[in-house]
Amino acid sequence: MVAMGKNGDANKGGVGMDGANKNDKAIDRVSGGVATSVSTPTVEREGRAGNGWKALAWSLIGWVVSIAFIVAGSTTMGSAEKGDVPFVIGVVLLIVGIVAVVAMTIPMSGFFTLQPNEARVLVLFGEYRGTVRGTGFYWANPFYSRTLRPADAGESVEEMAGKGGKGKTKADAPAGISAKISLRARTLNGPKLKVNDRNGNPIEIANVIVWRVVDTAKAVFDVDQYDQFVTTQSETALRHVASRYAYDHNAESDDAAAGEITLRSNISEVSEALKEELAERLAPAGIAIDDARLTHLAYAPEIAQVMLRRQQAEAIIAARTKIVQGAVSMVDMALKELERDGVVDLDEERKAAMVSNLMVVLCGDSDPQPVVNAGTLYN
To answer: Where are the bilayer-spanning segments (predicted)?
Structure first.
């Protein structure tokens, strides 16, 4: 353990801890005798960049002056041969002009333009200096990085193979991230995933999300390859949401009566749940979710036929139930009407026969064939 004084400074022999750590560095903490490293989230701040047109004007003036020195030096050296001026003056002017020309090439790399919904992350020798937003022509320190290297970009092929990347080549190493970050809305069409729903049935599901970067510092410094991070988290969130709900209501339970959410019947609710989970997962990367929708939902091929027969059986049962309920109400109404109007007086046996005949006629699949009884009612 590190002994700390009243002011928070470590004693001799301990490790000093800076009270104001930079945003892009880790904070080492000692908890329960075990040192843990906690990364501090990076916060976007406004960067400074000059007007590009003014800088271009000063650059042109510098180029003109540099060329003038070279021309003056060459002219002076030519006049020195005639003995009018010392030769060394011409050499000095020529050297100054050449040095000025070389020096003027360095600031030229500091010019950049930003289109609408575009930002530039300013990084100087590994230190975050801010983010420039807004359209226009800018000039900034020419030593600002134009490409930001991912954390694992410096690993060798052997190191990648040791981490499970066997067979990888240098071409498989992650590419650098451009310092220019697009703030436009982007669309990610996810692939079809095979997952199990809440009841354990294998289903195929896919989604589409609309996302955009809202915090460039978090997107660049808090995660590696933020676009790949979005893809991975989208798949993970979709799997998690799909496992929370059943594919459809079960006819043997009271799910439908209880208003339980299912993937098939409540697309809007499921999409909203997916959007909320994605927003929570991608917030640490400075990414906002504008929309998330399901684009594909079906049973897996191995159980599709079985589940189709099950759905057909459930539909037939539901239809038969409605038919029986309607037939019973019609028979009851007919008996009550006959008794009330005194059309015919039937005993219990004849009522049972009438109910049986009416139920057969009303619930049958085919049209009934009329039969005329030529005898008495009891023959």
So the answer is: 55-73, 85-106
Residue 210 lies in a domain: yes
pLDDT digits (tens, 9 = 90+) for 57-106: 888 888 888 888 888 877 777 776 666 667 777 788 888 888 888 888 88
What is the domain range of residue 100? 50-105
Which pLDDT value is given to residue 85? 66
Beta strand 186-189 pairing with 202-213: antiparallel
Residue bearing tokens 């006959």: 338
With the CA atoms of 276, 282, 287 and 288 taken in that order, what torsion angle do they form, in degrees rounded to the nearest 10? 0
Residue 50 backbone dihedrals phi, psi, to 5 degrees: -85, 170
| Alpha-carbon gap, residue 132 to 48, rounded angstroms | 7
Per-residue buried b or exposed e for 195-211, using 16+ beta carbons within 10 Å of the residue's own CB: bebeeebebbbbbbbeb
The two structure tokens encoding residue 10: 């470590």
* Residue 263 contacts residue 285 (beta carbons within 8 Å): no
**CA proximity to 207, closest of 264, 268, 271:** 271
Give the contacts of 46 (CB within 8 A, at least 6 positions apart).
130, 131, 132, 133
From residue 92, how far is each of 67, 72, 106, 173, 291 by CA, in Å? 14, 10, 22, 49, 66
- Dihedral (Cα; 70, 76, 78, 81), 10-degree rounding: -150
CATH number of the CATH domain containing 280: 3.30.479.30
Domains held by the chain: number: 3
DSSP secondary structure of 312-348:
HHHHHHHHHHHHHHHHHHHHHHHHHHHHHHTS----H
Number of CB atoms found within 10 A of residue 213's CB: 24
Query: Cα–Cα distance between 355 and 328 in angstroms, integer?
Result: 9
